[in-house]
Amino acid sequence: MKKIIICLLILAAFGLVGACYMSIYTDIAFDKDKSEREKLVIARLLQIRDAEEEFRKGHYGEFCGTIDSLIDFVKSGKAVVKIDEDVWTDELAESFESKRAAIDAGKFRSDTVWQSAAEKLGITCPDSLKLVPIGKEGAVFQLRKHEAFNLKSNEFDKVCEVRASLDDYMYGLSEKKIRLLKQDLKKRNKNRADLFLDNADDFEGEWYGLRIGDLKDPQNKMSGNWE
Predict the structure, then answer these.
(1) Helix ranges (DSSP H) in 65-221
(2) What average pLDDT score do residues 87-101 get?
(3) 37, 169 Cβ separation under 8 angstroms
(4) Which of 36, 127, 143 is nearest to 75 (CA)?
(5) Where are the chain's structural domains?
(6) pTM of the full structure
């Protein structure tokens, strides 16, 4: 009887060791998957940011308002490579009301060198900009543009925000661990924001994920919430 009890205790000890090992292993595996997926999403967000910045150069500082129109710009738009111009002097400014007027009068030269937007940005598959690259099949990035009041300048600034939902790019992994991850992010106030609805400017509930820009913060300058 004593030997049986000892054997049972040994088996129980092995069972606990195995359970502890599996718990640690699954945590490590989840963190690894999370890191790899985030890298893919961040790389795509940076491409979108580059495309938006290139779009703004030729559109008076305006952001592209939808992901589809941004893709169209990358496919068929032109990007500025170099602007080669004469020096705009005070004398010219007194004589002409604008550079355009001086150019028309032959007193000022301004040559712009253009290149395909896709070529300059190094984007070989523009249609891929729309899709979250990992996780839920068919999941897309959410893009919004807006105007936010800048307390420093006392003016309204153009702002843009692009989001990839954590539920989308972590799809397929442990739901329990995703839930615990959200709780940790909320506790640390990291990678979370108000949830905005499709086809509306309303905000409702909480959202978790990776994003560039902030519709409510004109000081953000299209930075990422992981930076």
Answers:
(1) 67-76, 90-95, 99-104, 117-121, 166-169, 175-188
(2) 69
(3) yes
(4) 127
(5) 33-75+125-213, 82-121
(6) 0.76
